[in-house]
Amino acid sequence: MDRNLQRKTILNALPFFQNIKNALTAGGTGGLTWHLHAALSKKQWLRTQDQIQAHLYKGLEMWTRTHLEEGRSLAQLESTRELVLIGASAGWMMSTPWLEEFTSIDAYDIDPLAPILFKLNHGKALQQKKIAVRFHNLDAIDQLDRVLNRHPRALIWFDNVLGQHRIRLKDSELASAQLKILQRRLQGRFWGSVHDLYSGPVLGAVEDQISKSTKTLSTKSAEVIRLDNSDQDSARVRFNGVETNLGQARQQFLHNLGATPAGGAWLDHETSKVFPQGTQLIWTGWDFKPSYCHCLEMGWWDGGMVG
Ligand SMILES: C[S@@+](CC[C@H](N)C(=O)[O-])C[C@H]1O[C@@H](n2cnc3c(N)ncnc32)[C@H](O)[C@@H]1O
Protein backbone atom coordinates (compact mmCIF):
# COMPACT_ATOMS: atom_id res chain seq x y z
CA MET A 1 0.00 0.00 0.00
CA ASP A 2 1.46 3.44 -0.88
CA ARG A 3 2.25 5.73 2.05
CA ASN A 4 -0.49 8.29 1.26
CA LEU A 5 -3.17 5.63 1.08
CA GLN A 6 -1.82 4.05 4.26
CA ARG A 7 -1.98 7.41 6.08
CA LYS A 8 -5.54 8.02 4.80
CA THR A 9 -6.68 4.54 5.94
CA ILE A 10 -5.22 5.03 9.42
CA LEU A 11 -6.78 8.52 9.76
CA ASN A 12 -10.18 7.26 8.61
CA ALA A 13 -10.10 4.56 11.28
CA LEU A 14 -9.67 7.13 14.09
CA PRO A 15 -13.04 8.01 15.70
CA PHE A 16 -11.91 11.61 16.28
CA PHE A 17 -11.07 12.09 12.60
CA GLN A 18 -14.35 10.41 11.55
CA ASN A 19 -16.30 12.74 13.85
CA ILE A 20 -14.69 15.82 12.31
CA LYS A 21 -15.48 14.57 8.80
CA ASN A 22 -19.08 13.77 9.80
CA ALA A 23 -19.50 17.19 11.43
CA LEU A 24 -18.37 18.85 8.20
CA THR A 25 -20.26 16.88 5.53
CA ALA A 26 -21.20 13.39 6.85
CA GLY A 27 -19.87 11.87 3.63
CA GLY A 28 -21.80 14.37 1.50
CA THR A 29 -25.10 13.66 3.27
CA GLY A 30 -25.26 16.28 6.02
CA GLY A 31 -23.01 18.02 8.54
CA LEU A 32 -22.30 21.76 8.53
CA THR A 33 -22.98 22.12 4.80
CA TRP A 34 -26.50 20.68 5.29
CA HIS A 35 -27.21 22.75 8.42
CA LEU A 36 -26.24 26.02 6.72
CA HIS A 37 -28.21 25.28 3.57
CA ALA A 38 -31.27 24.12 5.56
CA ALA A 39 -31.18 27.10 7.93
CA LEU A 40 -31.11 29.50 4.96
CA SER A 41 -33.81 27.65 3.00
CA LYS A 42 -36.50 27.41 5.69
CA LYS A 43 -38.96 29.66 3.84
CA GLN A 44 -38.51 28.01 0.43
CA TRP A 45 -38.95 24.55 1.95
CA LEU A 46 -42.19 25.30 3.84
CA ARG A 47 -44.48 23.69 1.21
CA THR A 48 -42.42 20.48 1.23
CA GLN A 49 -42.23 20.53 5.02
CA ASP A 50 -46.05 20.76 5.20
CA GLN A 51 -46.37 17.81 2.83
CA ILE A 52 -43.99 15.77 4.97
CA GLN A 53 -45.94 16.73 8.10
CA ALA A 54 -49.23 15.56 6.53
CA HIS A 55 -47.56 12.29 5.63
CA LEU A 56 -46.16 11.84 9.15
CA TYR A 57 -49.67 12.21 10.61
CA LYS A 58 -51.01 9.71 8.08
CA GLY A 59 -48.47 7.18 9.36
CA LEU A 60 -49.37 7.82 12.97
CA GLU A 61 -53.07 7.25 12.18
CA MET A 62 -52.19 3.98 10.39
CA TRP A 63 -50.05 2.89 13.33
CA THR A 64 -52.84 3.69 15.83
CA ARG A 65 -55.49 1.89 13.72
CA THR A 66 -53.27 -1.20 13.36
CA HIS A 67 -52.71 -1.41 17.12
CA LEU A 68 -56.38 -0.75 18.00
CA GLU A 69 -57.30 -3.67 15.72
CA GLU A 70 -54.89 -5.81 17.76
CA GLY A 71 -57.04 -5.04 20.82
CA ARG A 72 -54.97 -2.35 22.57
CA SER A 73 -56.76 0.69 24.01
CA LEU A 74 -56.14 4.23 22.78
CA ALA A 75 -55.05 5.34 26.26
CA GLN A 76 -52.54 2.47 26.40
CA LEU A 77 -51.21 3.35 22.96
CA GLU A 78 -50.87 7.06 23.63
CA SER A 79 -48.90 6.43 26.81
CA THR A 80 -46.38 4.12 25.11
CA ARG A 81 -45.67 5.65 21.73
CA GLU A 82 -41.96 5.29 21.00
CA LEU A 83 -40.23 6.78 17.98
CA VAL A 84 -36.91 5.92 16.35
CA LEU A 85 -35.69 8.67 14.00
CA ILE A 86 -32.93 7.64 11.61
CA GLY A 87 -30.95 10.46 9.97
CA ALA A 88 -32.62 12.93 12.33
CA SER A 89 -29.92 15.58 11.89
CA ALA A 90 -31.26 18.82 13.40
CA GLY A 91 -34.76 17.94 12.24
CA TRP A 92 -34.81 20.92 9.88
CA MET A 93 -37.79 19.50 7.95
CA MET A 94 -39.34 17.68 10.89
CA SER A 95 -42.65 18.67 12.45
CA THR A 96 -42.47 19.57 16.16
CA PRO A 97 -46.22 18.86 16.76
CA TRP A 98 -45.78 15.37 15.30
CA LEU A 99 -42.77 14.70 17.55
CA GLU A 100 -44.94 15.77 20.50
CA GLU A 101 -47.23 12.78 19.83
CA PHE A 102 -44.58 10.40 21.20
CA THR A 103 -43.57 9.51 24.73
CA SER A 104 -39.92 8.94 23.84
CA ILE A 105 -37.68 9.63 20.86
CA ASP A 106 -34.41 7.89 19.99
CA ALA A 107 -32.62 9.91 17.31
CA TYR A 108 -29.80 8.30 15.31
CA ASP A 109 -27.28 10.22 13.22
CA ILE A 110 -23.59 10.02 12.40
CA ASP A 111 -23.25 13.82 12.62
CA PRO A 112 -21.93 14.87 16.07
CA LEU A 113 -23.57 18.32 15.65
CA ALA A 114 -27.06 16.80 15.31
CA PRO A 115 -28.00 16.66 19.04
CA ILE A 116 -27.16 20.33 19.75
CA LEU A 117 -29.00 21.64 16.69
CA PHE A 118 -31.96 19.26 17.06
CA LYS A 119 -32.41 20.59 20.61
CA LEU A 120 -32.35 24.18 19.29
CA ASN A 121 -35.07 23.36 16.75
CA HIS A 122 -37.35 21.12 18.84
CA GLY A 123 -35.94 20.83 22.38
CA LYS A 124 -38.04 23.43 24.19
CA ALA A 125 -41.41 22.06 23.07
CA LEU A 126 -40.39 18.47 23.75
CA GLN A 127 -39.03 19.34 27.18
CA GLN A 128 -42.27 21.12 28.09
CA LYS A 129 -44.18 17.94 27.25
CA LYS A 130 -41.63 15.87 29.22
CA ILE A 131 -40.77 13.78 26.17
CA ALA A 132 -37.55 11.84 26.62
CA VAL A 133 -35.13 12.45 23.73
CA ARG A 134 -31.97 10.34 23.42
CA PHE A 135 -29.31 10.84 20.74
CA HIS A 136 -27.11 8.10 19.34
CA ASN A 137 -24.04 8.74 17.19
CA LEU A 138 -24.24 5.60 15.06
CA ASP A 139 -24.39 4.39 11.47
CA ALA A 140 -27.99 3.23 11.83
CA ILE A 141 -28.17 1.64 8.38
CA ASP A 142 -25.16 -0.59 8.93
CA GLN A 143 -26.29 -1.26 12.54
CA LEU A 144 -30.02 -1.46 11.78
CA ASP A 145 -30.51 -4.88 13.42
CA ARG A 146 -29.02 -3.55 16.66
CA VAL A 147 -31.25 -0.46 16.51
CA LEU A 148 -34.39 -2.55 15.92
CA ASN A 149 -33.52 -4.91 18.79
CA ARG A 150 -32.97 -1.99 21.15
CA HIS A 151 -36.44 -0.57 20.40
CA PRO A 152 -38.76 -3.52 19.72
CA ARG A 153 -42.03 -1.53 19.96
CA ALA A 154 -40.97 1.72 18.33
CA LEU A 155 -42.27 3.21 15.12
CA ILE A 156 -39.30 3.66 12.76
CA TRP A 157 -38.96 6.77 10.55
CA PHE A 158 -36.09 7.20 8.05
CA ASP A 159 -35.87 10.98 7.84
CA ASN A 160 -34.45 11.79 4.40
CA VAL A 161 -31.46 9.52 4.84
CA LEU A 162 -31.89 6.52 2.51
CA GLY A 163 -31.43 8.59 -0.66
CA GLN A 164 -28.06 9.72 0.67
CA HIS A 165 -26.78 6.18 1.08
CA ARG A 166 -25.25 5.91 -2.41
CA ILE A 167 -23.59 9.31 -1.97
CA ARG A 168 -21.97 8.28 1.31
CA LEU A 169 -20.91 4.84 0.08
CA LYS A 170 -19.70 6.31 -3.25
CA ASP A 171 -20.82 3.02 -4.80
CA SER A 172 -24.25 3.00 -6.43
CA GLU A 173 -24.39 -0.80 -6.95
CA LEU A 174 -23.54 -1.60 -3.34
CA ALA A 175 -25.97 1.05 -2.07
CA SER A 176 -28.73 -0.25 -4.34
CA ALA A 177 -28.18 -3.85 -3.11
CA GLN A 178 -28.23 -2.74 0.54
CA LEU A 179 -31.32 -0.58 0.08
CA LYS A 180 -33.25 -3.35 -1.66
CA ILE A 181 -32.84 -5.74 1.29
CA LEU A 182 -33.83 -3.12 3.85
CA GLN A 183 -37.53 -4.13 3.63
CA ARG A 184 -36.56 -7.66 4.71
CA ARG A 185 -34.39 -6.41 7.56
CA LEU A 186 -37.45 -4.43 8.70
CA GLN A 187 -39.81 -7.42 8.44
CA GLY A 188 -42.57 -7.26 11.05
CA ARG A 189 -41.88 -3.61 11.93
CA PHE A 190 -44.05 -0.56 11.31
CA TRP A 191 -41.83 1.86 9.41
CA GLY A 192 -41.84 4.79 7.02
CA SER A 193 -39.45 6.92 5.06
CA VAL A 194 -39.07 10.12 3.09
CA HIS A 195 -36.11 9.92 0.74
CA ASP A 196 -34.68 11.27 -2.49
CA LEU A 197 -35.66 9.23 -5.50
CA TYR A 198 -34.12 11.39 -8.22
CA SER A 199 -32.56 14.85 -8.29
CA GLY A 200 -31.47 17.22 -11.01
CA PRO A 201 -31.74 20.53 -12.87
CA VAL A 202 -35.11 22.16 -13.61
CA LEU A 203 -36.17 25.19 -15.63
CA GLY A 204 -37.34 27.04 -12.53
CA ALA A 205 -38.50 26.46 -8.98
CA VAL A 206 -41.51 24.15 -8.62
CA GLU A 207 -43.07 26.85 -6.44
CA ASP A 208 -42.79 29.48 -9.23
CA GLN A 209 -44.13 27.10 -11.86
CA ILE A 210 -47.17 26.41 -9.69
CA SER A 211 -47.97 30.09 -9.24
CA LYS A 212 -47.25 31.06 -12.88
CA SER A 213 -49.16 28.29 -14.61
CA THR A 214 -52.74 27.15 -14.33
CA LYS A 215 -51.34 23.81 -13.21
CA THR A 216 -52.11 22.98 -9.63
CA LEU A 217 -49.84 21.60 -6.98
CA SER A 218 -51.22 18.17 -7.83
CA THR A 219 -49.08 17.95 -11.00
CA LYS A 220 -46.02 18.37 -8.78
CA SER A 221 -47.09 15.48 -6.57
CA ALA A 222 -48.23 12.02 -7.59
CA GLU A 223 -49.71 8.91 -6.00
CA VAL A 224 -47.73 5.85 -6.97
CA ILE A 225 -48.05 2.13 -6.22
CA ARG A 226 -45.48 -0.38 -7.42
CA LEU A 227 -47.29 -3.43 -8.80
CA ASP A 228 -44.39 -5.85 -9.26
CA ASN A 229 -40.94 -6.57 -7.96
CA SER A 230 -39.00 -6.14 -11.20
CA ASP A 231 -35.68 -4.30 -10.99
CA GLN A 232 -36.15 -2.76 -14.41
CA ASP A 233 -37.72 0.44 -15.71
CA SER A 234 -40.38 -1.88 -17.16
CA ALA A 235 -41.66 -2.57 -13.58
CA ARG A 236 -45.44 -2.06 -13.52
CA VAL A 237 -46.66 0.86 -11.40
CA ARG A 238 -49.97 2.65 -10.87
CA PHE A 239 -49.24 6.35 -11.39
CA ASN A 240 -52.11 8.67 -10.34
CA GLY A 241 -54.53 5.78 -10.87
CA VAL A 242 -53.22 4.82 -14.34
CA GLU A 243 -51.23 1.63 -14.90
CA THR A 244 -47.91 2.23 -16.68
CA ASN A 245 -44.26 1.33 -16.17
CA LEU A 246 -41.72 2.91 -13.84
CA GLY A 247 -39.63 4.44 -16.65
CA GLN A 248 -42.64 6.23 -18.16
CA ALA A 249 -43.96 7.36 -14.78
CA ARG A 250 -40.55 8.82 -13.93
CA GLN A 251 -40.26 10.58 -17.29
CA GLN A 252 -43.70 12.14 -16.95
CA PHE A 253 -43.16 13.20 -13.36
CA LEU A 254 -39.74 14.74 -13.92
CA HIS A 255 -41.16 16.57 -16.94
CA ASN A 256 -43.94 17.94 -14.69
CA LEU A 257 -41.27 19.16 -12.29
CA GLY A 258 -39.67 21.10 -15.14
CA ALA A 259 -36.73 18.79 -15.92
CA THR A 260 -34.66 20.29 -18.71
CA PRO A 261 -34.25 18.41 -22.02
CA ALA A 262 -30.85 17.33 -20.71
CA GLY A 263 -32.87 15.30 -18.21
CA GLY A 264 -30.24 12.57 -18.38
CA ALA A 265 -28.23 14.62 -15.90
CA TRP A 266 -30.66 13.61 -13.15
CA LEU A 267 -29.22 11.47 -10.39
CA ASP A 268 -30.93 8.20 -9.50
CA HIS A 269 -30.64 7.79 -5.71
CA GLU A 270 -31.18 3.99 -5.98
CA THR A 271 -34.20 4.08 -3.68
CA SER A 272 -36.95 3.00 -6.08
CA LYS A 273 -37.07 -0.46 -4.47
CA VAL A 274 -36.90 0.58 -0.83
CA PHE A 275 -40.62 0.01 -0.20
CA PRO A 276 -42.32 -3.37 -0.66
CA GLN A 277 -44.59 -3.88 -3.65
CA GLY A 278 -48.10 -2.55 -2.93
CA THR A 279 -47.01 0.35 -0.68
CA GLN A 280 -48.99 3.56 -1.31
CA LEU A 281 -46.37 6.14 -2.18
CA ILE A 282 -46.31 9.89 -2.72
CA TRP A 283 -43.82 11.47 -5.09
CA THR A 284 -43.31 15.18 -4.71
CA GLY A 285 -41.00 17.91 -6.02
CA TRP A 286 -38.78 19.68 -3.50
CA ASP A 287 -37.06 22.96 -4.51
CA PHE A 288 -33.74 22.03 -2.99
CA LYS A 289 -31.87 24.94 -4.61
CA PRO A 290 -32.80 27.49 -7.28
CA SER A 291 -33.24 25.48 -10.51
CA TYR A 292 -32.32 22.22 -8.79
CA CYS A 293 -35.09 19.94 -7.66
CA HIS A 294 -35.33 16.67 -5.73
CA CYS A 295 -38.10 14.19 -6.37
CA LEU A 296 -38.96 12.86 -2.91
CA GLU A 297 -40.73 9.58 -2.23
CA MET A 298 -42.73 9.07 0.98
CA GLY A 299 -44.45 5.98 2.27
CA TRP A 300 -45.38 3.81 5.26
CA TRP A 301 -45.30 0.05 5.67
CA ASP A 302 -47.57 -1.43 8.33
CA GLY A 303 -45.40 -4.37 9.35
CA GLY A 304 -47.20 -6.94 7.20
CA MET A 305 -45.27 -9.80 5.54
CA VAL A 306 -43.13 -8.70 2.60
CA GLY A 307 -43.99 -10.69 -0.55
C1 LIG B 1 -30.34 15.15 4.32
S1 LIG B 1 -29.85 14.99 5.97
C2 LIG B 1 -31.35 14.66 6.85
C3 LIG B 1 -32.11 15.75 7.23
C4 LIG B 1 -32.93 15.69 8.47
N1 LIG B 1 -33.87 14.65 8.47
C5 LIG B 1 -33.51 17.06 8.64
O1 LIG B 1 -34.71 17.27 8.38
O2 LIG B 1 -32.74 17.94 8.98
C6 LIG B 1 -29.27 13.31 6.10
C7 LIG B 1 -28.80 12.98 7.51
O3 LIG B 1 -28.55 11.58 7.59
C8 LIG B 1 -27.36 11.36 8.34
N2 LIG B 1 -26.86 10.05 7.95
C9 LIG B 1 -26.37 9.67 6.74
N3 LIG B 1 -26.10 8.35 6.75
C10 LIG B 1 -26.42 7.89 7.98
C11 LIG B 1 -26.39 6.61 8.58
N4 LIG B 1 -25.95 5.55 7.91
N5 LIG B 1 -26.81 6.48 9.87
C12 LIG B 1 -27.26 7.58 10.55
N6 LIG B 1 -27.33 8.81 10.03
C13 LIG B 1 -26.93 8.97 8.75
C14 LIG B 1 -26.48 12.54 7.98
O4 LIG B 1 -25.51 12.78 8.96
C15 LIG B 1 -27.50 13.66 7.88
O5 LIG B 1 -27.67 14.30 9.11
Count of discrete structural domains:
2
Q: Which second-level CATH architecture of the largest domain applies?
A: 3-Layer(aba) Sandwich
The count of DSSP E runs of length 2 or more, i.e. the number of strands, is 11
Instruction: Tell me the β content.
Output: 15-25%
According to CATH, what is the topology of the largest domain? Rossmann fold
Low-pLDDT regions: none
Question: Which class of the largest domain in CATH terms?
Answer: Alpha Beta
Question: Which bin fits the share of residues in helices?
Answer: 40-55%
Radius of gyration: 20 Å
Which class best fits the helix and strand makeup? alpha/beta
Shape: globular
Bound small molecules, which ones?
Answer: S-adenosylmethionine
Number of helices: 13
Mean pLDDT: 89
**In whole angstroms, how far apart are the ends?**
45 Å
Please write the string of helix (H) and strand (E) elements: HHHHHEHEHEHEHHHEHEEEHEEE
Query: Biggest sheet, open or closed, and with what strands and sense?
Result: 11 strands, mixed
In brief:
The chain has helices spanning 3-13, 15-24, 31-40, 46-69, 74-78, 96-99, 114-128, 144-150, 165-169, 172-180, 182-185, 206-212, 246-257, and strands at 82-86, 104-109, 132-137, 155-159, 191-201, 221-226, 236-239, 242-245, 267-268, 280-289, 292-301. By secondary structure, the chain is α/β, with parallel strands linked by helices. Strands 1, 2, 3, 4, 5, 6, 7, 8, 9, 10 and 11 form an eleven-stranded mixed β-sheet that branches.
